[in-house]
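the two lines:
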Amino acid sequence: MDLIGLTVDRLHEALRTGTTSVREVCVRTFERIEALNERLGVFLTLNEDEALRRAEALDRDLARGEWRPLLGVPIAIKDNICTRGLRTTCASKILRNFVPPYHATAVERLLEAGAIIIGKTNCDEFAMGSSNENSAFGVVRNPWDLERVPGGSSGGSGAAVAADLCVVALGSDTGGSVRLPAAFCGVVGLKPTYGRVSRYGLVAYGSSLDQIGPITKTVADAARVLQVIAGRDPRDSTSSNHPVPDYVAALNGEIRGLRLGVPREYFGPGLDEEVKTAVWQAIHRFADLGAEIVEIRLPHTEYAIACYYIIATAEASSNLARYDGVRYGYRAEGARTLREMYRRTRQEGFGAEVKRRIMLGTYVLSAGYYDAYYLKALKVRTLIERDFREAFTRCDLIVGPTSPTVAFRLGEKTEDPLAMYLSDIYTIMANLAAIPAISIPIGLSREGLPIGLQLHARHFGEATLLRAAHAYEQAFPFTHRPPL
Amino acid sequence: MPITKRDVEKIAELAHLELTEEEKERFTVQLAAIVAYVEKLNELDTTDVSPMAHAGREERADYAQRDDEVGEGLGQERALGNAPDPARGYFRVPRVIEEG
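prediction for all of em together
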């Protein structure tokens, strides 16, 4: 069984016809990881023994004719999503030895659907970053060019899918952390509507923004994974009862009459010319497929990054207060008092970007600054959400670039946090407005690096989002593979 | 308002972070740049705008309600499973009350 470009569809066809077994695919997957992981830095923890045992059990199920939606699918899980009995570090020294006593709901549902967890993927520490350079356990390299970043924060998941070290992966997206690595690595990344997927077991960063999403090789696979993980969870009070439609059945190729909004603000200064050209070509292709193109405005776009970095860091400073060396995680040695232990544990346990965000969040929430920064940002969030509500009265989907540039070089932005934050310019709006968005690969730059296109939909509009992305992919398939 | 090293020390105190001198210097410069940037929001008049802690609430209006039923907890052993210094079924910590 060839792993290159392997999708759920092709795997299942091979299993149905008996040309491969779950075990064989699993063994091959670990062989490929063995050959490539050292170069790419994708996996922090492997689950080989358990995965092979499970593969054998699934082969027995298969022999009895027991079929499941993700049966035998090797899946990589971002290391900020809890897996029972399997180390979950958030790529942080402070959780270096943390072994969760429970599964995240999304993980539990994937396992019930027959998927096989092959390992935990590297990411920016606590999902804070746009390049995966903030991991305490080393950088992830972009499979398309080992001197470049894979995007962050789910860089390991993006690179794992692109390098065919798994069939699908889970990431998490607080400001673009699924979509940016998908764009930089030439794969598909979906951020669902806030509340579509349970956050139970996803280690909290910005709780009003965080959402788990799939990273896959095709739109159809993203639909299949979403189908399994979407839906109400009594353990997450922000998860929604909104009915889960049949996402796979929605992929009917029909986009005639769909109104695609093009926001003028997404094509301003800072957008790389090559990316701009590729995105416009894709928009014209959508028109050729029968979509109607309308110009729209998202007037508060230029305020989104400022708004996001206040809200996200405020939530982070509160969420990360729990890492105090008492109940789990790293504890500094030799402290004589409790306060000293807190301070030294956090000093030694957190990396620079995490500290920077805790500091910023603490500042914007502190007495005397709360109204000027935090409250102000919450008001601007209202304006940003309103922009989308108004735009969606004129169109069904919003289209634009996922990122202003292709993957940048390792080290290029590490000394300038603000420049790094600006990579998220097109992705953070969806988190602030709680709407779903997808990134799909549409071509390569002259240097051979993937370019991503982003689509946004209304709240709970994943079926329309996936339908349009799938129709595009069918008409203009992205068939390039990284030169590994 | 520009951020000073004194501010950074105060914030670190609030956040229970013990920073090195080098970190203090670096964060002072970096946080000042970030705060100057986010002050961009002051260009917007938000007098009659209400704050939004969670977006998309209308669409999610059916959220959150369930019966409060007693379920199974982790249990003491598993809850202590990741503790850095468990002792006799508790989380042991250094002295809480500091000597004057």
